[in-house]
Amino acid sequence: MDPDTFRQARWDEPTLFDLDEGPAPEGPFDHETTNEANLPDEHARETVGIPTVPRSRLTRHLTRQAQMTFGVDTGTYPLGSCTMKYNAKMPEPLAHEPDLLNVHPLAREEDAQGILALLYQLQEALAAIGGLPHVSLQPAAGAQGEFVAMRMVRERFRDLGEISEETRCEVVVPDSAHGTNPASAAMAGFEVLEIPSGSDGCVDVKALEDAVSERTAAFMLTNPNTLGIFERDVEKIAEIVHDAGAMLYYDGANLNAILGKTNPGAMGFDIMHFNVHKTFATPHGGGGPGAGPVACTEELAPYLPVPRVKKGKDGLYVLDDGDERSIGAVKGFHGNVGVLVRALAYIRQHGSDGLTRVTETAVANANYLYQRIKDAYPAPGEALKKHEFVVTAEGLWEENGVGATEVGKRLLDYGIHAPTVHFPINVKESLMIEPTETETREALDALVDALLSIGDEAPGVVREAPFNTAAGRVDDVHAARNPLLTWDQVQRDQDGS
Ligand SMILES: *Cc1c(COP(=O)(O)O)cnc(C)c1O
């Protein structure tokens, strides 16, 4: 396969501030600055400090930026754990309906029945999919859903009188857990205890048995786990956790591997989050927006964030603020409604048979891919894969210094986004690959060809890649540690202040 079939646009594009033409000319488009909002003078600004750029130039600026970006609409994007699937564009116009966009969040319930009905339907659909009866749509991301759930677990044990420095003070996570799991538990005030995985990549049941006690408030697990392997012992795990008096938490990021096959409620989980921006629509590249609804058992329901949508006796939808046991609001108003509407549209478009097919196709695609590359990129353990899998580039790394990072960067030259690299950290030189159900056989074969030919290429070339993208080897550690996200920050950086 020829890596030069892909070439990204490479514009020498200045920032909008460099294109600033100064004060806007007088004319039909001139906006006078007025203080219509009646802000106190000390808060009202004369200028807002945004550049004046002709509309045509602005459009070109944004189009050029898009041409220098790689997205799921450009090519295959097998970023494991993130579920970057192509979503049909059908939910977009629905989420942009003026009747939805223009509803004021403080509108009276009787004037907002349409949107409340949609949110109610989504709560019902998620309860059915999760096998857990009560849902709050409020959290803005999976990570916030985890935090909310850990706060709820804490409040529940507080009400039971079991929280102390020695009891229900700890949350157990496997070493393959997503980094947000221990972070959320710690933010909710728990100590975090990590347990090692077994050699098969699954929870080591013996280690779990040894770890849980009356100190344990919850065990956090994703199933299938981060290696894309279904935890066969999940019922035993649930029993161990419940026998210790603790709660079992389901990280829903991998839900697209089990839709219509099983569900967290049936597996014995007490509480979970959904990443609707992974499983149901709105791929979350670029960091948002997302939504992380939480579902739970009857016992935990009073602690859910509010408001939640309920159906009144007269058939009208109402916002329910719960009682003093609720952990309260964690996001403005009803959550990220636009993302929630897209998720409902996706769920309704597929229906329950369709969602089952989504899972079957995602799992078949991952296994097809794995079978074709496993000789060059082996996986730890021989367990059957679900919707994603983790392989290692350790062989290539030892042979010629081409590791997971180099393979990922070189894939870009083939017009394919890098998989997740160096995660999970319990596998050396790991590449975590998730094709999703939306990639065609042709696209999967192209990914296989690219991965195999990179293994045969001159190591010196691969180490310098990418060549065909707008930016080459960026210093991502520097970028992550010193983010310059606003023009003010860039200026301050330039002034050295
Ligand atoms: C993505 C992910 C999360 C966090 O979800 P966000 O919506 O990105 O905050 C948590 N756990 C796993 C396994 C994930 O893949």
Structural commentary:
This protein starts with 54 loop residues before the first helix and ends with a helix. A seven-stranded mixed β-sheet has the order 1-7-6-5-4-2-3, with helices on both faces. Strands 10-12-11 form a three-stranded antiparallel β-sheet, with helices on one face. With 497 residues, the protein is of the alpha/beta class. The chain has 17 helices and twelve strands. Helices cover 37% and strands 10% of the residues. Pyridoxal-5'-phosphate binds next to helix 5.
Could you list some keywords that capture this structure?
globular; alpha/beta; 497 residues; three-stranded antiparallel β-sheet; binds pyridoxal-5'-phosphate; seven-stranded mixed β-sheet; 17 helices
Number of helices: 17
- List the ions, cofactors and other small molecules found in this model: pyridoxal-5'-phosphate
Mean pLDDT: 93
Terminal residue distance = 49 Å
Helix proportion range = 25-40%
Shape: globular
Condensed summary:
With 497 residues, this protein is of the alpha/beta class.
Strand and helix map with partners:
Layout: H1 55-67, H2 91-95, H3 98-101, H4 113-130, E1 134-136, H5 142-159, E2 170-174, H6 180-187, E3 191-195, H7 205-211, E4 216-221, H8 234-243, E5 247-252, H9 264-267, E6 271-274, H10 276-279, E7 294-296, E8 308-311, E9 317-320, H11 337-373, E10 389-392, H12 394-400, H13 404-413, E11 420-421, E12 430-433, H14 441-456, H15 459-464, H16 476-481, H17 487-495
Parallel strand pairs: 2-3, 2-4, 4-5, 5-6
Antiparallel strand pairs: 1-7, 6-7, 8-9, 10-12, 11-12
The structure holds pyridoxal-5'-phosphate.
